[in-house]
C-alpha cells in the first residue's frame, strides 16, 4: 500500500442537494484515497446526507467538515456535481481550480466568466475517452451507467403490466416488448437491466459497432433497413447525422416503434442538442398504455418530440417521462463513482505537491478550459 503523503493541496466540496440533485462530489473513502496522494479534504456540513453519508463519516475519514464559506475560502480546488452558479463563481478566490462538467462545448460565456474571475476551469466533459489513462476519470460513462440502470426500473414501474412472462392460473401474461434507442453506456445498462427483469429487448444505435454489443447482451438489434456505416464519431460517440439521414432514421423508427410497449431513449451528444429519434407521429402510433422514458430530455430538447422534464400523458394514453436526473435517484452508488472520477482528475494535476498544468500533455490540454497559461512570447 502506498504511503500517505503530507497533504499540501486542499480540495473542497459543497452541498449541492436540490429538488433534482442528491449526489455529492466527495465520499468518505475518496477522502482517504486523496490523502494518500497528498490532498486534504474539506466538505460543507450536510453535503453527503442525501447520499447517505453523515458528517461523522467524513470526519472519521479525515476530512474537515465546515461551513460553505470556509470551504470556499480555504480550498485550492473545488469539485462539483453540477457547475458552480454565477454567484458562487463571483465568490471564489482567484487561482482556485474548479473541476466538474462545466458545459464548455456550448456555453462560451460561462467559460469566459471563469477566466475573468481568475479561476482554472477543468471541464470533465472534454475528457479524451480514448486515452486509457483517463478511463477512471470518465464521469459521463460512470453516471450514464447508473442512468441506464435506473431508466429500466422507472419504465417498469410506470408500465401497467409485467416485464417478464408470467404463467398463472388465470392465464399467461406475455412479456413486455422493450425498445432501447441509443446503445452507448446508458443504453447497454438499460438493455441488461430490462433483460434481467424478463422483458423481450430490442435496441438500435447508428454506430455499426453497437450491433455486436447489443446482441452480446441477449437483445435483438433493430434493423431499420438503413446504412449509416460511418455512424461512429470522435471519442466513441455517435456522429451527428445529416438532415437527410435524420429524416430517414426518424421515419423508420416511427414505423418500427408501434410494436413496442416500452421505449427508452438514451442518445446524448455531450453539450449539444440531442438527436430527435421518435417524432410526434411515432408517439401517436403507440398503443394506449405504452411508456417512453427519455433520458436525454433537457432544456435543449430530447430524443422524443414533445418530451420535457417530468411526466405527461398524451391524448392517446402514452406516458412520456423526461428523466435527465436518473443518476441522482441512485445517489449513493452514483456519488461513489462520481467522486472517484473527480478525485482522479484532481490527482492527475497534483505534481510535486502542488496543482500544475502541462499543456504538452494531451489530457491537460483537453481538460483545461479556463485559466490556461499565456502562450510564450515569440522571439
Automatic annotation (TrEMBL):
- Ranges for domain Alanine dehydrogenase/pyridine nucleotide transhydrogenase NAD(H)-binding come to 156-322
Enumerate the Gene Ontology biological process terms: NADPH regeneration
Q: Name one Pfam family in it.
A: AlaDh_PNT_N
Q: What is its EC number?
A: 7.1.1.1
- Offer an example of a GO molecular function term for this protein: oxidoreductase activity
Keyword Nucleotide-binding assigned: yes
GO cellular component entries: plasma membrane
Residue span, Alanine dehydrogenase/pyridine nucleotide transhydrogenase N-terminal domain: 12-147
Sequence similarity: Belongs to the AlaDH/PNT family.
Instruction: Give a short account of what the protein does.
Output: The transhydrogenation between NADH and NADP is coupled to respiration and ATP hydrolysis and functions as a proton pump across the membrane.
| Protein name (record) | proton-translocating NAD(P)(+) transhydrogenase
